[in-house]
Structure prediction request, 143 residues.
Amino acid sequence: MTENDESKKIYADHRRELLERQRANSSAYDRAVLALSSAGLGASISFVSKIVDHSIAKWACLLPLSWIVFCLAIVSTVASLMTSQGAISKALEYAGEYYLNERDEYLDKRSGYEVATMVLNMVSGIAFVTAVVLTLIYMISNS
Prediction:
């Protein structure tokens, strides 16, 4: 085994470990956003709309807007779960090309599924934070 081959093996092992950590973090992130968005939506529908008289509320449009944004967080998280499955399938395909067919260009190749998953994860996080802020503004302005 040459020094270059040894470096490639070390790099591949290190990369694999980092990808495993990234997947674990992504999974925890997805679960958190999904659970918190669902809880936030349910709580705001159940409690906030009963505490504040919506017909005389200030910034009345913020509450239904927050519900829409909570739903966006939920939908984008569920969609990211589906695209991540496609990303894993493509990553397996790329690993075969790299390891079995010795095609170096497949080592760091990203699929459209992987990019879509990253975008959807960003959307879900931003949507969740936005929905929480909208709900808080509504509640504070009407307390």
In short: The first helix runs from residue 3 to 51. Helices lie at 3-51, 62-99, 112-141. DSSP finds three helices and no strands in the chain.
